[in-house]
Design goal:
- The protein is an alpha/beta fold.
- Helices cover 25% and strands 14% of the residues.
- It contains 3 helices and 3 strands.
């Protein structure tokens, strides 16, 4: 996706972003951990995840989600968290839905859409 606008957010990675619903990186085997890398040039991430606990995976906000965000942010990248109710494994991303405000802010910031506001 490519979008043009008069303003940039200043992150240096505008025009690309990643959205994820319920992924965390904690508890991976050492073999998998060795393959993971994060860089400041990676796409910014908007991470929707259950708070406090995802009962299907056992992932917790403090034990899984926050460490994932910290690991990504420590690389110089940006990971924005959006708390969700337990068992919310799909997020309605339609315009005007309750999930729209954080999605809108994220897209407008990282895809340089500020001029469209």
């Amino acid at each position: 996706m490519r979008a043009y606008a008069a303003e940039e957010c200043g992150c240096g990675r505008c025009e690309r972003s990643a959205l994820t619903t319920g992924a965390s990186l904690q508890g991976a085997s050492p073999e998998i951990e060795a393959l993971l890398s994060f860089d400041a040039t990676d796409s910014p991430i908007l991470l929707y995840h259950a708070k406090e606990t995802d009962s299907s995976s056992g992932a917790t906000w403090t034990g899984s989600v926050l460490p994932t965000q910290q690991r990504i942010n420590s690389s110089g990248n940006v990971c924005t968290l959006v708390p969700q109710p337990n068992m919310t494994h799909t997020v309605d991303l339609s315009l005007g839905n309750s999930s729209w405000p954080p999605l809108r802010e994220f897209l407008f910031t990282h895809l340089r859409l500020a001029a469209l506001r």
